[in-house]
Design a protein that fits this description.
globular; three-stranded antiparallel sheet; ten-stranded mixed sheet
């Protein structure tokens, strides 16, 4: 896949983690026999338990080397398991948060694509049509985002897996939508993953951007999304984290102008690399 790095203004070619295994599961007749098991919470729970053992810590050095992870950005300590490493915390000052009131920030280190929401509250994601009530599980709440934008922040295995609030505000509602755990990548494009996958749907009332929908989407081998359970929050405050794997945060917004470089890439179907706390747009 090709992604755009807005800091260097260059494109990067990146490989899908576990691509050959995913291709087998999704695009092979025999692989699809095993797919139903692979996207279950049962397999995810087993994977999580294995990665919580002390023995799993042996995987860390090779993982860091393979994915070129800058460990200077993170806590300097001994990790007791692969799970402990995967949910590591950033060092102070390594992810400065843009605190300007009119600035919308990225909630996570991720790859961002922006989609327009039409007046019928539909959007096209990688060739699949979605209605907002399919994503939110709530037709009434979907009305709030008519004509707005959907921001899809895809976290890959090399990313920092903690995520934050995009503005100061308070929680309106929170609910869990049970579902499967398909991989959130182009390989699974035949499935409507934002309708089918397990997700946590949060409606937030924010100080500068009105009502936002903030949706954490589970993915293959991620059966657990940890939410810190805060009802009143500040901009840039940690909201929670994903356990091992890659996953996605989807934000539905209105009255926001997304930065031009991000929109230009999104219009071409190319993800832009963004970081936790950095500016991605401004209030209209």
């Amino acid at each position: 896949m090709k992604i755009y790095d807005r800091r260097t203004r260059h494109y990067e070619l990146v490989e899908q983690f576990g691509a050959s295994k995913l291709e087998f599961l999704y695009n092979n007749v025999f692989g699809r026999i095993f797919l139903r098991l692979a996207v279950s919470h049962f397999v995810s729970n087993i994977y999580g338990k294995v990665n919580s053992t002390k023995r799993s810590a042996k995987k860390i050095p090779a993982f860091v080397n393979e994915h070129h992870i800058k460990m200077d950005d993170f806590e300097q300590r001994k990790y007791t398991s692969f799970n402990d490493f995967f949910t590591r915390k950033i060092r102070y000052g390594k992810r400065p948060v843009n605190m300007a009131k009119d600035v919308l920030i990225s909630p996570a280190d991720s790859k961002l694509l922006v989609y327009e929401i039409d007046d019928e509250m539909r959007m096209m994601v990688k060739g699949r049509g979605y209605t907002l009530d399919e994503i939110l599980g709530d037709a009434e709440a979907a009305q709030e985002f008519k004509g707005g934008k959907a921001l899809v922040f895809r976290l890959s295995v090399d990313d920092y897996h903690r995520f934050c609030y995009p503005d100061r505000g308070c929680l309106i509602s929170r609910k869990t939508i049970k579902g499967r755990l398909h991989t959130v990548s182009p390989i699974s494009k035949r499935y409507k993953i934002y309708k089918e996958n397990y997700r946590e749907v949060n409606m937030l009332k924010t100080e500068n951007f009105g009502t936002l929908a903030y949706i954490e989407v589970g993915a293959m081998l991620i059966g657990r999304i940890v939410d810190n359970g805060t009802d009143v929050f500040d901009k840039g405050q940690e909201k929670g984290y994903f356990e091992p794997g890659g996953s996605t945060v989807v934000m539905l917004v209105n009255n926001v102008e997304i930065d031009q470089d991000i929109m230009e890439q999104s219009d071409m179907g190319i993800e832009t690399k963004v970081r936790y706390g950095e500016r991605i747009g401004t209030v209209l």
